[in-house]
Amino acid sequence: MILVLGGAGYIGSHAVKELLDKGYYVLVIDNLSTGHRNSLDTRAVFVEGDVGDSALLERVFTQYKVEAVMHFAASCLVGESMSNPLKYYENNVINSFNVLKVMVKHNVKKIIFSSTCATYGLAENEFLNEDSPTSPINPYGRSKLIVEQMIHDCFKSYGLDYIILRYFNVAGADFSGRIGEHHNPETHLIPNVLLHLLGKSKHISIFGNDFNTADGTCIRDYIHVLDLVEAHILSLQEVLNTSPVGRVYNLGNNKGYSVKQIIEQCERITKKKAHVVYEKRREGDPPYLVASAKKVYEELEWIPKYSLEDMIRSAWQWHKSNPDGYDS
Ligand code: UFG
């Protein structure tokens, strides 16, 4: 059985669907704090609860034969981590410690961990590879980096096989239309622009146009959620079939788009005009984060299939059909 922590969230729910479609038995733990009951796949076993609850983890690991863990359960907003850092150290660091402890105790020694390019910090117009210095500029990035280091120590001392996946900016939705992105509040750029174009907000804010980039707005590397999930499946197969494995991979498209370019693309695809308002910088935002994902292409033969246009089109489809997300 594959244990998916945070399997009712945006990325977790897409991973659960793909695992089930591929024939894996899936067990989900989610506290539904940001995840949605309606996103749950009825083919998966669901345990409602918190990853920080050691007794619950103990029960689950005793009751089920867990082969590997995919750990998506985390708080993941850069801005929020600046105003409430302890939430990040608790949800991301302490809870992951609980997970690792129970895994080692029950001799479950395979993990795929969701990390982030926010572990790198400031980059100056260069592609980030896995050997680029890690010097996060926000508590979110720091919390993920601490967990990466804990996992690596468990690899060295207890033989825990791992693949850490450092996501760049994830967007898009499954083409089935059943699952998609729904955060409350929504803070991510692409869904925010699309929800604005659907008439859900009066304007779209651009946080800072005085960065040292071509048009002054932040540059990010966007990756379709389905490509990201494909990398998880390949990583899972690798840790299940090989040992020792202790690797870190970037997941991105090796291509940067500015905030302005994203808004323009959304306008072009939806044929609607956005009302843009410039605001001051959002604290903790690095100006430029673009991946070199060469290592995972070479080692796992992972090749992203989807373009930025595919991400925006699939997300638009989801938001149009579900203007209130899972509450629609
Ligand atoms: N932005 C706006 N207006 C908005 C929303 C965002 O201008 O309404 C800007 C942000 O300031 C930033 C860029 O768009 O410059 C991207 O912001 P997102 O909130 O979409 O994404 P982040 O890069 O801040 O963070 C996301 C995830 C993290 C992940 C990171 C990797 O939330 O978990 O991508 O870069 F680590």
TrEMBL record:
What is catalyzed by this enzyme?
UDP-alpha-D-glucose = UDP-alpha-D-galactose
Q: Could you tell me the EC number(s) of this protein? A: 5.1.3.2
Q: Name one GO molecular function term.
A: UDP-glucose 4-epimerase activity
Query: How is this protein named in the record?
Result: UDP-glucose 4-epimerase
Domain of life (superkingdom): Bacteria
Question: What cofactor does this chain's UniProt record say it requires?
Answer: NAD(+)
Identify the pathway.
Carbohydrate metabolism; galactose metabolism
Q: Which organism is it from?
A: Ectobacillus funiculus
Q: Which NCBIfam families match?
A: galE (TIGR01179)
Similarity annotation: Belongs to the NAD(P)-dependent epimerase/dehydratase family.
> Residue ranges of the NAD-dependent epimerase/dehydratase domain?
2-252
Q: Which UniProt keywords apply?
A: Carbohydrate metabolism, Galactose metabolism, Isomerase, NAD
Quaternary context: Homodimer.
Top enzyme class, one word, equals: isomerase
